[in-house]
Structures are given as structure tokens and as C-alpha cells.
Amino acid sequence: MEVANLKLLIWAGLLISLIVCGFAQQGGNNCIKVNAKSCADCIQAGPNCGWCKNSSFLQEGESTSALCDDLEILKSKGCPPEEIENPRGSQQMLKNKEVTNRVKGSAETLKVENITQIQPQQVALKLRIGEPQTFSLKFKRAEDYPIDLYYLMDLSYSMKDDLENVKSLGTALMGKMKNITSDFQIGFGSFVEKTVMPYISTTPAKLKNPCTGDLNCTSPFSYKNVLNLTGNGTEFNKLVGKQHISGNLDSPEGGFDAIMQVAVCGEKIGWRKDVTRLLVFSTDAGFHFAGDGKLGGIVLPNDGQCHLDNNMYTMSHYYDYPSIAHLVQKLSDNNIQIIFAVTQEFQPVYKELKNLIPKSAVGTLSSNSSNVIQLIIDAYNSLSSEVILENNKLPKEVAIEYKSFCKNGVNGTGDEGRKCSNISIGDEVKFEIKVTATQCPEKGQTDPIRIKPLGFTEEVEIKLEFICECDCHKEGIADSSQCHNGTFECGACRCKPGRIGKTCECSMDEVNSEDMSGTCRAPNSTEICSNNGECICGQCVCKTRDNPNEIYSGQFCHCDNFNCDRSDGLICGGHGECKCRECDCWQNYTGSACECPLDTTPCEAANKQICNGRGICECGVCNCTDSKFQGPTCELCQTCLGVCAEHKDCVQCRAFDKGDKKDKCDEECSHFNMTLVDHRDKLPQPGDFGAQTHCKEKDVDDCWFYFTYSVESSKAIVHVVKTP
């Protein structure tokens, strides 16, 4: 039983060793494979890589790159923790003003620029390659936040009835919006189409009045800014009331030209900073987009610039319509949320367009626009109920991940991690932002990352600093006497370009010189570096293996620590260290695989004799010199006379608590396992156990008792009839 337990412990140790080795191998591989020539190369290989700056750490034959390895492996190889370079990333909140708790109608009157809806505002991250830095972002939509709404209307002839209802929109909408905000501005613009064929008729009469019959229509135009954003609803009604319908030839309209100008001409239209910007786009037709300008001979792509002169778009004949992607970019850059108020017929078209434009909404416009106010309020509430984070174009050296923590325990990751839905004004939501560096920038630092909620001007600025050098780099000694053409830093030479070797002693042109390779051969050998390394500058630089715990070493890379004899599946039996393919056994172990313990305790019998004087203790196991005897201490002899007589006193004291050994039973009679049975026919029968003897002996009361003495797996087993 003891031997079985010993084997179980050995196998358990082997399994644990394999698991630990596996993890170490998995972690250390990247550190070794990068073949780091400096501490900087090492720490850029991964967050688990460290550099041992102790110059005496390397074994003979190991290259400078062996200073770079998994952190735990470096420690296990003997590098003092204080000698390991392992810089870590960090983060610092530079601006972290709390979000504003503002309630509509309260006595508190804050200026718009003093309202904070996103926290933090500025973060500094120090990034090490592969080590993510994570921080929390909080967003809370302030109540009573100012709103600018610009109403952009299609004034082609089919919208004649709609214009009549829009003429009173200013004062009516302002009255409704008071329930949402106390600071509301409204503006108005109109569009028709590009003023070239085939979109309009260019005959002189049609240019003056594009409508037929007695209808008095205004000349066709592309886009006109009628009213800058104002808080005067009456002025809105007055100016819109003076507008007249125009006309064009084709069904799709030039609304995209108008949207672009409204987005980029902020100063001329009067968009305020730090407000919610809404653009209501009202039409009963489809739209032209990039490429359609070719029909009129217009091939120059839209330049996305402001071209308003006297409130008229003057370059419609020169630049093509913008693409959808171009509009998305400009609307986002200028924090404008668009509401498409379109008739039922074109709902499917604009719903598809909505899916391409973040933070946009579609409402069904009645045939005469009588429901436009309720449409705007419903769309605004819909837009306000969703927060979507976006970032500027990321530097190629970093990756970013989002995780959202929304209302009612709803969390999101991936693309869903950028947004929260079904929130009300005043609700607070949180996001987790994870930034990871993937490489060091080629030229110093990179531009900051900017994260903002779509439709808002507030943003979080993330300043980036990359950890691409070790701290010990600052202490490097240029042109050190320890290095030829290099800098001694972090315990090793960092060679100048074109130089190589542990001390930068060679030029790259000399590396494979035949003259140098002769010093890399062992005496009486033709193999360079024993086929386990490369000859560089006349010295062997040993190969590295996938398993970081397996190392070639020696002047000719002729040594290793993994080709020693094994016992129980372990190198050197787990009781020694493999040095240059020979086991260096620990104390009290010997043998080619350290498989033999020198301790004789397992061979001691109950009488304190080694193997009962009948054998020799070898490797902790009795080797019985007389073949008649067996057992862990050569105590068993099944062919000897007197087996029954030899053990009857111990059986008697253990089974019946009497006899000559009663007082010292525990001390002298624990060498067998005992089982009591009811009758003689319950005793083991021949063949049940190996080496079995049936015994009939008299006890101290002159009564007969029956027992069997057996041996199973080198352990004595006794069965006794419990009644003498």
C-alpha cells in the first residue's frame, strides 16, 4: 500500500510539473521568439515579458536574447526580481468634472458652457504593447438643454399644400418645445434642384417661372437659407409666409446639396455651440446622390465646403451631389441629428437611408404637413432616448473596445457596447473603454483619441504615451568599453546598426566568415556548434527551443538540460538537476536518473533491522538475499514451517485481546491487515489470495482458533474466525 501511495504521489507531481511547464511554455514563447536584441525589443513582445539586466545571468553559449523571457521563468532561472525590467502602463484623469444635475424650472441658472454631460473630459494613458488600459465613462443627458432646430423644406411644386401649413410652424412649435427646453431657436431653408439640364428646364421663360398656366412660381434654385436660427417664432412665420413654390423636371430632388450646406455653413446659418442641433428634412420625393451629377455634365466630387453667397448655394452647377458617406461624416463632425419628415410613399426609401446615418429618425408626414409639429416632437424624443459613442480615426498603433452598462441591467459589448437605448433625459449610463497598444509608433507619439456621443459637442480626449523603452535605457553608457560600437545598457550591449555579437565586436559582413567558424567546432568534430547553434563572430550562439525551460548551453552548444536519464517519466526522477546531459542528484539520491534514495527507513522492519537481516536495502527497497523470503522487509516466508506459529500471538492479541503480546500488541503486531469472519467456511479459499496459509492454533485458554495468513501486493492480510 505504501508503494502504491508513493507511485501516486510521483504521478501527481509529474502531472503538476507538466501543467506548470505547459503554462510557462505558452507564456514564454512570444518572449523568446521575438529574439530580442535589447530591453526595448523585449518589453514590446508582450506584457508578460521581462528583461533581466543582471549581466552575469547568461550561461556560456546563450545569446543576449536569453535575457528576455516570461517574468516567472526569469525568476525561476535565478534572476533577482529587482533586476527584472518590467514597466507597466498607467492612467491619469487630467479633467474629471462631475456630470451636471440640472432640473428644468429650478432656480439654478447655469450657462450652457458650464453644463457637463460626459465624464471624464480628459484622460492620459501610458500604454505598453498588449497590456490594455481600461477606464469608465459616464454620460448623463442634462435637462432643459438648449435646442437649435433648422427646418429644411422641399419647395418643388408638389409641396404647395405643405408650405401653407409650415408658414405658422414657428410660433406653434416654440409653444410645444417649451415643455422640453426653455432655450429654443428655429431656422428655415428651402431647396429644389440643381439649376442645369436635365433637372430643370433652362428656357428663359421656365427659368423665370417653372410652373405652368397662371401659377406664379419662383425661379428654380438649389438651396436657399431663408432664416438664420432665431428665438423669434413670429419672425419665422413672417419670412416663411413670403416663400413661393418653385418647380423642376425630374422626380428626385437635390436635397443632399442642401443638407451638406446646412451642415458645413454653421457660422452663416447660426448654429450655436454646446446645444442639441436638429435638422428637419421635409419632402415628398426621393433624392439624388453622388454620381447623378453626370447627367448634367457635373463630374467634380462634392468638396464638403460652404459655398453660400447671399444665402444662396452658388456651386450646384460645379460640384456633384454628395455621397451618403460624405453626409454622414459632415453631420457627425458638426453634431447634427437629422429628422426625415417624408410622405408615406417614400417611407421605405428613407428608412433605409436612416439605417446608414447614425442618430437619425424618420417620421411620416401627412399629405399637407399638418402633423409636422407632433412628428418633430416624437422624433426628438426618439433621438434623445439613445446614446451612441463614436471616436475619431484611431492611430494604427491602438485598438479600442467598448462595453455599455445601460438601464435595467442591460449590458452590451462589441458594436452594442457603444450605445444605450430607452433612456430618458436625466438618466445616467456608463461605458467601459478599453484601449490597447498593438505596436510602438514609428515617429514619437500619436494624435489623441476623441470619444463623443453622436449629436453632442462634448467629448473625452485620450492622450496617449507609449512605453517603448525600459527605464534602464536612460542609464545606458554610449561607446562603453564593454561594447565595440554600441551602448552598454540594461546589462547588455545594444549594438549600432550593422554590428552584431555580444559585445558588438563583429560587422554583419563578417558573420558567416569561414575563418571564424573554425573556433565554433569542438575538438575532433566537424559540426559547427554541435548543430545546436550558430557561429556568430567566432562564438557559438545556441538555439532556443519552443519550451523555454529547455536550454542548450556550453562553449560549443554541446550541453543541454533536457537529455538526461528519466525515472517515472521525470528528468532525473524529479530528484536532481540535468547539467550537460548528466544528472546532478540532490542529497540522499543516487543513480543515473537519481532514481535511488539513499534513505534506508523504508527498509526497516518492526524489529528495527534492515530487511529483517535477510536482504539488502537498494534504492529504498529490500532485495531479499534468500529467495524463500518476500515482503517489504523480507518478513514473509510461505514455504517455511511455523508461519502459523510465528504469527499466532499477534493474531490472538489483535483478534481476542489476550495472549503473550497483549500488552505490546500495537507496537509489535501492526504489520498486517486483519478481517474477522463468522465461520470457518467464510475464510478465504485456495486461489483467493496468493501465498496463502490456513492455520489452526490453541489460545491461552486452550481453545482452538482458526485464521489464514496471505500476502497480496507485498502486504500481509489475516482473516480470523471471530469465535474460538
UniProtKB/TrEMBL annotation:
Domain of life: Eukaryota
Keywords: Integrin
Protein name: Integrin beta-1
Organism: Sphaerodactylus townsendi
UniProt gene name: ITGB1
